[in-house]
Structure formats: structure tokens, C-alpha cells
């Protein structure tokens, strides 16, 4: 099968997201300028550079009560900071609950019953029990082709690691069951890993 996206795929569901999988989930916490916390998952998320450490996530779609994109983007543009929380198997239902389209000004931590903790380097809350959390300062927002598509870039200025996820000096995703997004409504839990050595290393 071959198709051009501009012509449509002719399938019952769009295969695009299923092709680019698995994708890590950035469970992004932000705070509005009036002090309201927000929490939402984004599966177009990844690391962008390691020195200095930087991350990116894409926000697509819009909300009727936001002029530009979603609450997360609006909050980041107001405050210049955000936190990326790693999703574990034990927290996947709360992560999913926080994806609900709630009115602006709603605290998704409270709505999804997620315990929050204060960040150290930025004025923002983080998921208290997350295996890892990355405190970030905004570096740039890039407008993509499409009415409501944006990419947010941030520099990591603080890293929280849960002690039980460190094994022999390494952060071990198999210890907590890292949750990844597939296509459609499908997800995966990472339990098995293997190591490859690059030629010449």
C-alpha cells in the first residue's frame, strides 16, 4: 500500500502515529501566571540534545477557551518553565485521566488525584511519585505547518530520580515499567531491555 497524506489513506484509522512508535510520554506539568497547576500528557515528546540537556514536545489541537493551542502551551509562554514527568505503569490511569479536556483554570493534579511536589529550580509542581522528572526552562516555541501545531523546546535545569529506579548507577526503566504510546488507543509497557555496543566503542 502507498498513499499520499494529502489524498487520505482510505483506512478506518490513520496509521501515521502507529508507524512512529513506541513514543515516550512527556507528562508535562505547568503553572499559570495566576498560580494554577496544570498536568497533561504529550506523546510527541523526546530528548533533543544532551549537552546541555534539552527536550522537546509538540502540542497539536486547540481548546475553545485558549487563544493559542492548549493550556500547557499558554502556561509555558506566560511563565517560561515546565516540568516533564516520566510515566510508570502504576501511574498510567492517572496519566490518562489528566488528558481530559477540562476548562482552563482546572488543576489536573487534583482532578486526576495525582500527588504533587514542588520543583527545586523552577516555580512549578511535579508528579511526586514519578520515576524521574525534568525541570525545564523554555528556550523557544516553533510554529509548525498546520493551524494549531507547535513545538516547545526547553533546557533541563534540574533532574529528579527516584532512588529505587537506580540500579548499579544506571536509571533502569524496567524497574518501574516505562509507559510508551503506540498508535490509535494502544500503549506499551517496557519490561525487557537489551544492550548493543556500537562498532569502535
From TrEMBL:
Query: Where does the source fall among the domains of life?
Result: Bacteria
UniProt domain Flavin reductase like: residue ranges: 18-173
Recorded hits in SMART domains, A to Z, give:
Flavin_Reduct (SM00903)
The cross-references to Pfam families, in alphabetical order and at most eight, read:
Flavin_Reduct
Q: What is this protein called?
A: Flavin reductase
Q: Which organism is it from?
A: Sinisalibacter aestuarii
Amino acid at each position: 500500500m502507498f498513499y499520499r497524506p494529502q489524498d487520505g489513506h482510505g483506512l478506518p484509522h490513520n496509521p501515521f502515529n502507529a508507524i512512529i512508535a513506541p513514543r515516550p510520554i512527556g507528562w508535562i506539568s505547568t503553572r499559570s501566571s495566576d498560580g494554577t497547576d496544570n498536568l497533561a500528557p504529550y506523546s510527541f515528546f523526546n530528548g533533543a540534545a544532551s549537552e546541555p540537556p534539552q527536550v522537546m514536545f509538540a502540542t497539536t489541537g486547540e481548546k475553545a477557551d485558549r487563544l493559542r493551542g492548549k493550556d500547557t502551551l499558554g502556561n509555558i509562554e506566560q511563565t517560561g518553565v515546565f516540568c516533564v514527568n516520566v510515566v510508570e505503569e502504576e501511574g498510567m490511569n492517572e496519566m490518562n485521566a489528566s488528558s481530559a479536556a477540562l476548562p482552563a483554570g482546572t488543576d489536573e493534579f487534583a482532578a486526576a488525584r495525582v500527588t504533587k511536589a514542588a520543583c527545586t529550580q523552577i516555580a512549578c509542581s511535579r508528579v511526586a511519585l514519578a520515576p524521574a522528572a525534568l525541570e525545564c526552562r523554555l528556550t523557544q516555541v516553533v510554529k509548525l505547518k498546520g493551524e494549531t501545531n507547535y513545538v516547545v523546546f526547553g533546557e533541563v535545569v534540574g533532574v529528579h530520580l527516584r532512588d529505587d529506579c537506580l540500579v548499579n548507577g544506571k536509571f533502569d526503566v524496567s524497574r518501574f515499567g516505562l509507559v510508551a504510546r503506540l498508535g490509535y488507543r494502544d500503549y506499551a509497557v517496557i519490561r525487557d531491555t537489551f544492550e548493543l555496543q556500537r562498532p569502535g566503542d
